[in-house]
Design goal:
Helix content is 12%, strand content 42%. By secondary structure, it is mainly beta.
């Protein structure tokens, strides 16, 4: 049976600032200047990302599209808050009959966080970012900042932000 400890060790995962564990697996050598970005960016990057049940990836946003790929474990919920205040949840997993997806793209500039669905133990996914991920393009606000902008989403914001 695959365990979190096994995956962390085998894939050489490290703690991620937004929650969970990760390992960068790809960073394109090719770089370019992209409109809306300060300086050059690698054209693409990829990571493994692992979450356990009592942990979450806190709401954050980046300036690039982020494609999620489901690999192993239990259903993962990706929560998004759009500029108009709409909250949407996408479920990544293998149960296609229940509407779960194997891949999904979070659009650039959307606030998002993720967690393992209730009853699950862990989720292992991959994330591909283009233009490539750079911490200069990463924002992870407090609950207060998000609540000021999206007061109708108080419940999910309080559940999925770091203190």
């Amino acid at each position: 049976m695959v365990t979190v400890e096994y995956l962390v060790n085998k894939l050489q995962l490290e703690p991620h600032p937004e929650g969970g564990y990760f390992k960068e697996t790809y960073r394109a050598d090719l770089k370019s200047d992209f409109n809306g970005f300060e300086g050059e960016r690698n054209v693409s990057t990829g990571i493994y990302f692992l979450l356990e049940q009592l942990d979450f990836s806190a709401f954050h946003k980046i300036q690039s599209d982020e494609m999620w790929h489901f690999y192993d474990g239990d259903t993962m919920e990706v929560h998004m808050i759009f500029d108009d205040g709409t909250h949407k949840v996408v479920k990544l997993g293998r149960d296609l009959e229940k509407g779960e997806l194997l891949q999904f793209v979070v659009p650039a500039g959307v606030w998002f966080g993720s967690r393992v669905a209730k009853g699950g133990d862990f989720s292992l996914v991959g994330c591909t970012v283009a233009p490539g991920f750079d911490f200069k393009d990463f924002e992870m606000p407090t609950a207060e900042v998000l609540l000021e902008r999206f007061p109708k989403q108080k419940g999910i914001i309080e559940e999925m932000t770091r203190k």
